[in-house]
């Protein structure tokens, strides 16, 4: 290995090896995550665990695929031994001279990243699922395993997903996985069960046995003694004395001889040192160490911890992205899933082959959607999409379908109608949409385009949809 091929530029914090450039991140340098876009990989100084974790989380939690998919290499230190970090990095080196050892692996990841079509999902949930699928694809991962992690608010962590949430929101990771499993992207296998605080959904709970009357856990426990000859039943303290170790019955004053012969200890009795209440069964309480709420155990939220395996369907979504959850489709009334849309178009092409009628598919493209969404946030995005769909819906027939290809491309069917008329309807729709946006978002300019395509029964519907999207 030719070590002289590794060129280190200390002032810019970059390292070059055979035309591959890396950026070096350490505590003594300004952290500019955005700068990493133009490099093949990020090398992080691993001497300080907190620093390394912070940087890794910011990279994997970023919303730009050119940042969150970036190969991460840890240099020196012990940070890579932390299970959370271990699951998020792509290699470890102990000197820059070892870059040739990881360089090929880094190129592999970058090449796989190029195979993905990155699309914008219509909701935060769908975006997180897309991110996970993209990450697994570029790392050749087929399985997603939870790692036991004391620093995780849910005790088990799915590190890549956890990077997208603050500590107190980490339970939402489990909801993301539930969505992905319901959609058939993953199969799951039960591993364990966790309990979450009903107030803040943290799993950092301290379980205690407490007095059912006052809730204190400051208690004593005594054996209960049953004296057979006289049938007296009472706590053992009724039978003890200050002089010797002998047990004497307070009712019949006889000496107790052998357990099982003349007396028995049928159960125990608890006494609260706070309120003197005597009771047989404790209340079990779980005090939350995150928010201090003392949960009666019956009210804890239980969640399954599973191991997840990518399905064939999941693998295909890893290449094309996951646009909308079933809830998104439900929330945006009048839309169908992209898969349904594709199926309907396939049948329509078949039908046209026999009837030779005129049917069209239309794409409405919000040209600068990315900029707009970044400015207004995901709630406003959802609102806008709802309004746009409502407006489109009112201009087309109820038999026609609307779907999202991405958060910037809406597809519409306009079957059994001349293309010229479809075109005219779309022109009117665009005017309406422009007006709608002007009225709602005064200082933002959004450019919307539409493209009407007449279905050709000699070509596959899939191909024609792809051409339309590529407008
Ligand atoms: Zn709590
Ligand atoms: Zn008490
Ligand atoms: Zn007795």
Describe the structure.
By secondary structure, this protein is of the alpha+beta class. Among the domains are: 1-115, 3-Layer(aba) Sandwich (Rossmann fold), CATH 3.40.50; 220-274; 332-469, Reverse transcriptase/Diguanylate cyclase domain (Alpha-Beta Plaits). The chain has 13 helices and 22 strands. The protein has helices at residues 49-60, 65-68, 83-86, 99-115, 124-138, 159-162, 172-182, 312-320, 326-331, 338-355, 369-395, 419-440, 461-469, and strands at 6-9, 14-17, 20-25, 41-45, 72-75, 91-93, 143-144, 147-148, 156-157, 186-196, 205-210, 219-227, 232-235, 263-272, 278-279, 283-288, 294-296, 301-310, 360-366, 402-404, 409-414, 448-454. It has a six-stranded mixed sheet with strand order 1-2-3-4-5-6, with helices on both faces. Strand 2 and strand 3 form a beta hairpin. The longest helix is centred in the last third of the chain and has 27 residues, at 369-395. The protein starts with 5 loop residues before the first strand and ends with a helix. The mean pLDDT is 91. The structure holds zinc ion (ZN) (3 copies). The site of one zinc ion has 8 residues, from loops.
């Amino acid at each position: 290995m030719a070590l002289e091929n590794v060129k280190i530029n200390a002032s810019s914090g970059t390292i070059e090896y055979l035309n591959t450039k890396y950026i070096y991140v350490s505590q003594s340098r300004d952290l500019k995550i955005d700068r990493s876009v133009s490099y093949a990989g990020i090398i992080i100084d691993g001497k300080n665990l907190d620093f390394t974790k912070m940087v890794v989380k910011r990279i994997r939690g970023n919303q730009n695929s050119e940042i969150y998919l970036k190969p991460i290499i840890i240099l020196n230190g012990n940070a890579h031994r932390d299970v959370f970090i271990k699951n998020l990095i792509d290699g470890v080196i102990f000197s820059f001279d070892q870059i040739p050892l990881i360089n090929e692996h880094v190129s592999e990841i970058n090449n796989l990243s190029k195979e993905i079509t990155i699309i914008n999902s219509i909701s935060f949930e769908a975006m997180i699922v897309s991110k996970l699928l993209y990450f697994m694809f570029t790392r050749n991962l087929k399985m997603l395993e939870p790692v036991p992690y004391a620093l995780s608010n849910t005790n088990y962590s799915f590190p890549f997903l956890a990077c997208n949430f603050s500590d107190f929101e980490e339970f939402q990771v489990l909801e993301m996985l539930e969505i992905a499993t319901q959609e058939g992207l993953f199969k799951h296998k039960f591993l364990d069960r966790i309990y979450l605080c009903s107030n803040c959904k943290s799993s950092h709970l301290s379980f205690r046995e407490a007095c059912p009357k006052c809730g204190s856990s400051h208690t004593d426990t005594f054996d209960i003694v049953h004296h057979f000859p006289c049938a007296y039943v009472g706590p053992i303290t009724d039978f003890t004395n200050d002089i010797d170790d002998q047990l004497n019955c307070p009712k019949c004053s006889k000496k107790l001889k052998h357990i099982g012969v003349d007396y028995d200890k049928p159960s125990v009795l608890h006494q609260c040192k706070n309120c003197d209440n005597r009771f047989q069964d404790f209340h079990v309480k779980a005090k939350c160490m995150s928010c201090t709420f003392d949960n009666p155990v019956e009210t804890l939220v239980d969640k399954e911890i599973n191991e997840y395996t990518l399905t064939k369907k999941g693998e295909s979504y890893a290449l094309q992205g996951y646009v909308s959850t079933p809830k998104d489709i439900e929330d945006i009334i009048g839309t169908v899933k992209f898969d349904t849309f594709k199926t309907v178009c396939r049948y329509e092409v078949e039908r046209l082959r026999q009837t030779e009628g005129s049917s069209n598919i239309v794409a409405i493209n919000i040209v600068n959607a990315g900029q707009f969404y970044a400015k207004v946030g995901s709630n406003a995005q959802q609102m806008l999409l709802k309004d746009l769909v409502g407006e489109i819906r009112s201009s087309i027939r109820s038999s026609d379908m609307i779907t999202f290809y991405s958060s910037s491309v809406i597809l519409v069917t306009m079957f059994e109608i001349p293309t010229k008329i479809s075109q005219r309807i779309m022109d009117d729709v665009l005017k309406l949409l422009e007006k709608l946006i002007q009225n709602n978002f005064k200082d933002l300019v959004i450019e919307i385009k539409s493209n009407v395509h007449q279905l050709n029964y000699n070509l596959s519907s899939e191909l024609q949809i792809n051409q339309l999207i590529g407008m």
